[in-house]
Amino acid sequence: MSKKSISRRQILKGGGALVVGFSLFGPDVKVMGQGRPPDPQFVPDPLDYLDPRDLDSWLAVMQDGSITVFTGKVDLGTGVETALAQIVAEELDVRFDQIHMKMGDTAKTVDQGRTAGSNTIQGAGPQLRQAAAAGRLELLKMASARLETPLEKLTVVEGVVASADSPAKKISYGDLIGGQRFNIKVTATGIQGGLKVAPEVRAKSYKDYKIVGTPIPRVDLPQKLTGEYAYTMDVRVPGMLHGRAVRPANVLSTKPATVDESSIAHIRGVVKVVQEGSFVGVVAETEWAAIQAARALKVTWTAPETKLPANRDEIDAYLKQTLSSRISDAAKEDDAIFSQAHKTLEASYHWPFQNHGMFAPSCAVADFQGDKVTIWTGAQGPFTTRDRVAAMLNFPKRNVDVRYVESSGCYGRLTADDAAEDAVIMSRAVSKPVRVQWMRADEHVWEPKGPQQLFAMRAAVDAEGNITAWDSTAWSFPWTEAQGTPQLGERQIGLKFPPAEGAGGTGEGTIGGGGASPMYEVAHKRGQSVTAPWPQDEPTPLRTGPLRSPGEPPRVFAVESFMDEMAAELGVDPVQFRLRHLKNNKRATEALLAATEKAGWKERPSPAPASSGTKAVGRGVAVAVWRGSTVPAAVAEVEVDKSNGQVKVTRVTMAHDCGLIVNPDGLRMQLHGNILQGISRALMEEVRFDASGVKTVDWQSYPVIRFHDIPEIETVLINRPEIPSSGGAEPSVIVVPAAVANAIFDAIGVRMREVPFTPPRVLAALKAKTTVSQRL
Question: What does the alpha-carbon distance between residue 551 and residue 730 come to, in Å, rounded to a whole number?
């Protein structure tokens, strides 16, 4: 089923319009690789961007009183379409069902940066709020003139403006604007996430909210539940052909030495074999013909230019060697403090490469016609895809039209829009629309992966059981590597792309908050992170990309496991030990207490008293502050079968503080999803590979959580309407692996310092009876 495209002109002619859009990335622009630094004053390119200073770039008011809202942000399945509509409805004083969102169309919306980093509500929310407030003010000015009533005497209910003194004097928004444009300017400075819209207009006080903060059902769910929803995979356009990329059996840098087209001559419907540089693809009349041709095409690949490490231990060794001299020199500064400590505790923690694991593989449709191309895709950054394709084709940006159509849950995967690039190359080769659908093995092997990470922790404790010094180092590969080296990069089709901001480098915070430095109050605290490029300036053999809450789940796993280890060593209840070191952190303290109270936490040290039989139960806790804003806290309860090492999470209780809650039901859905994904990543998920390539190619070799693994889940939402909304789609995942690890220790008295906690690793830990190393 094709998606009908409606132009802004048609929208306005059909019913009157005020257009509101917004940008979204705030301080995360650099971190998330947005490429362009914020400008103090936006100067629009009339051939490229809509002008955010035009109120009509954000909203359109129709004659029937409905409002179309234009935003460069997209809904990846997190419910932000509903939440953003609530924010606009609130400011305009219209019913929620009067709002219609137009999202992620590069020809019709302002470039607001990628939808990533849980920044939509915290970044785009204020931008939309202010644009809507500016729109409401202009509408009231119109109504004041029409009704001959001062502004301060006007009220608005469901988009109808009335005189407070003479209620019979009233007029609707639709009648006021009559399908016409506002044609006014508002203040707008900065770009993308740094964009500030109409800051001079006073928006509503949170005390007056009637729509924001209410559990309005998500607008996308009814069609999804009935199977009527059209995803990227469902897009069909007239004359469309089907394409498949043909890649080597591994992820190494190889080139096609020979391509034997006669090997597929027997397959009916093959249109063309496409070869550009090292890229090989097939285009066919039907999807089945494309699949058959891609499987049968005989390609001889050259020997790899690089090689994969034999195993993950080789990667750990390389990471630890990187900049080791600098780390050693810095650590010497703390030696005096540690030498005087009552106790010194040390531990290291390992996190593996993990897949994003989209349930539906990457898919896109491209229609290359003359000097223009239209793309239908589920990209997290439609403008990023537009810019990358424009660079790839040497086209002006305005000649690339990207239209967002929701894909599978991507968790960061579609910041690199590989299938769209494949489709563009193949569509150009045949001058017809081409749909590209990756296969499951393509996705598991070739997708960018969350990188392997390693953490070394050291802490000093005084005689009273207080942490006096904390020293930690975290090693990783750049988690933005795929943004700087797209799939169809220089090594594949010989085209250079602009480097992505944040795509590499070393320093504080590159993998989530200064290495593994904790939020706890410690007099002497040092956290360092080292982001290591692969040797000889080669891209990482296992291409990396930001996986949900990049860097944070591994970091919190290390920090909160180490806190638990110290509490156990001192014989102190894990919650009380954390509270002792939170001190003035009111929000973290309250989240921790809310979660443990809801879970029925009983004060005692870990591990629990040994139980008879093969089954042991335990509880674990973790709390964190996500990127300086959102505060999640979780209690996990587990059952461990000591005979086979199987871990089952039976219950998770989570408290969550993200400031103002726009939609409590939508937020609760996000917590549930994050809890399940956190359990899956903690217990099951690991990319396995050897020197010949990736071995986890399907759901059998790379298992994820199933319905029978789902635990009981309870949530406590802490609403702070006086604090601006912060991230809600990512933060809650970061505490789950740590809470599960600590619960396993509570159950069986052994530490799991390597994710995932598979049965063989649990059995090995039981056998070794691993304990934290200690120097008295």
Answer: 11
Could you say which DSSP state residue 124 is in?
A: I
Q: Residue with structure tokens 């690789």?
A: 33
Least confident of 14-18, 83-87, 317-321: 14-18
**Residues with Cβ within 8 Å of residue 718, at least 6 apart in sequence:** 587, 590, 591, 594, 631, 655, 656, 657
Q: Nearest 5°: phi and psi at 82?
A: -70, -45
**C-beta separation of 69 from 18 below 8 A:** no
pLDDT for the residue 98: 97
Cα 356 from chain centroid (whole Å): 10
Strands (E), 191-278: 196-197, 241-246, 256-260, 270-276
Model pLDDT, residue 360 = 95
Q: What does the alpha-carbon distance between residue 351 and residue 328 come to, in Å, rounded to a whole number? A: 22
Strand order through the sheet with 99-103: 59-61, 67-71, 99-103
Distance, CA of 589 to CA of 573 (rounded, Å): 15
**Residue 525, token pair as written in the block:** 């605290």
Q: Which residues contact 373 (CB under 8 A, 6 or more apart)?
A: 366, 367, 389, 393, 395, 399, 400, 401, 424, 427, 428
The residue among 689, 451, 660 whose CA lies nearest residue 554 is: 451
Q: List residues bridging with 116 in a β-sheet.
A: none
Question: How many residues comprise the chain?
Answer: 776
Rounded Cα distance, 760 and 742, in Å: 18
Burial zone of 430 (CB within 10 Å; 0-12 exposed, 13-18 middle, 19+ buried): middle
Instruction: Please report the pLDDT score of residue 477 as a whole number.
Output: 79
CA 451/CA 404 separation, integer angstroms:
27
**pLDDT tens per residue across span 441-468:** 999 999 999 999 999 999 999 999 999 9
Q: Between β-strands 154-157 and 160-163, what pairing exists: parallel, antiparallel or unpaired?
A: antiparallel
Confidence check: pLDDT of 172 > 60: yes
Q: Please state the separation of Cα 729 from the chain's center in Å.
A: 8
Who contacts 50 (Cβ-Cβ below 8 Å, separation ≥6)? Answer: 21, 44, 57, 108, 109, 110
List the structure tokens of 464. 């009273």
Could you tell me the CA-to-CA distances from 100 to 49, 68, 69, 176, 382 in Å, in that order? 22, 5, 6, 19, 19
Closest by CA position to 518, among listed 548, 562, 477, 572: 562
Sequence-ordered list of residues with C-beta below 8 angstroms from that of 547, at least 6 positions apart, any chain: 354, 356, 411, 412, 413, 449, 450, 479
User: Comparing 651 with 317, which gets the higher pLDDT?
Assistant: 651
From the CB of residue 235, how many other CB atoms can be counted at a distance below 10 Å?
Answer: 21
